[in-house]
Design goal:
Layout: H1 12-19, E1 32-33, H2 45-53, H3 68-82, E2 92-95, H4 98-109, E3 119-124, H5 129-136, E4 140-147, E5 153-154, H6 161-166, E6 167-173, H7 185-198, E7 201-205, H8 221-227, E8 236-241, H9 242-246, E9 254-258, H10 260-273, H11 279-289, H12 293-313, E10 327-331, H13 340-351, E11 353-354, E12 356-357, E13 374-378, H14 383-398
Parallel strand pairs: 1-11, 3-4, 3-6, 6-7, 7-8
Antiparallel strand pairs: 2-9, 4-5, 8-9, 10-13, 12-13
Amino acid sequence: MNPLLNKLQPYPFERLRQLFANVTPNPALPPISLGIGEPKHPTPDFIKHALTAGLGALAAYPATAGEQKLRQSFTDWLQTRYALALDPATQVLPVNGSREALFALAQTVVDASATPAPIVVSPNPFYQIYEGAALLAGAETYYVPSRADRNFAVDWDSVPDEVWARAQLVFVCSPGNPTGAVMPLDEWKKLFALSDRHGFVIASDECYSEIYFRDEPPLGGLEAAAKLGREDFKNLIALTSLSKRSNVPGLRSGFVAGDAAIIKKFLLYRTYHGSAMSGAVAAASIAAWGDEQHVVENRAQYRAKFAAVTPLLEPVLDVKLPDASFYLWAGVPAKWNGDDAAFARDLYAQYNVTVLPGSYLARDSGGVNPGRGRIRMALVAGTDECVAAANRIVQFIQSGQ
């Protein structure tokens, strides 16, 4: 067996299952889960119809690079969303969801034979695929804290020069999971300068880009590069997905875009990896990327939901409306002494509400786990259910238990 598999830690939801293993939740209350970031809004009918209309494509092997019409739908969307003009032939590729692509990109980019050993830089807390992708590519992982005193911005300035010198890949998540923070242009400028100096690739995970609460949509990595005169997107790959934008997590559809030289190598890897997108999925994807009205309506649902829930929780939790994404990243009250796992376990036992301990989404770095004492709540269910969960959390905290 691959010995690198032994370096992987249990996934957060497996740790949550273990936490709850001997707990019997209050049977008088129906279960409400805010634990998993799985969109629950209905999939638009026009996407379903496009999928079934494309079933004839199942009779043929799909091209790994995707058909021209599919790639054109990506670049058309990038033009509409970010005013960017990318070449559909060389600067975009279809992927089977951003999770698959994040993992595969690390296998493409990292040179495990490098001396000293390569480093993959990750925000902390983080989406667990970053860590697994780095370890299975043969790299070490360096965790950069997202600091509460900086509105959960990643503290890139804290990374030592010797780490940057060994870095081959840097994961950026903006809007962030779990914090919802959006990286501003000056931070992108700083990261691009470091990439130019040390040669590392930046993977910009942007799967939450279309769920936001401000008037201005979140800045994207490619957009930031263009604003800074980096039209070739050197050493930059952006990854996005339809899962959250269009409520189709089961479609497993997204795309990557950016540096044509990296895209070329990534296509070579994917040709052998066997990760071509089904023609039926491609048909549904083209329809989804080509329509914005359902995205506007989806965003409005989240805005209404967060507007209803956040004020209920603010008096009892250290929480506020995020920049974007569908998570609330909340600090637990002082009486739990920073024990986010105990808070989650007791809440589940007494009020049958599931939240994810923040420490499960982070790693100890410099003796500190930046997720400790916080919980992640995914407001993915309907508004009534999320409000009911918020009211139970308020009762739980005020009960003094």
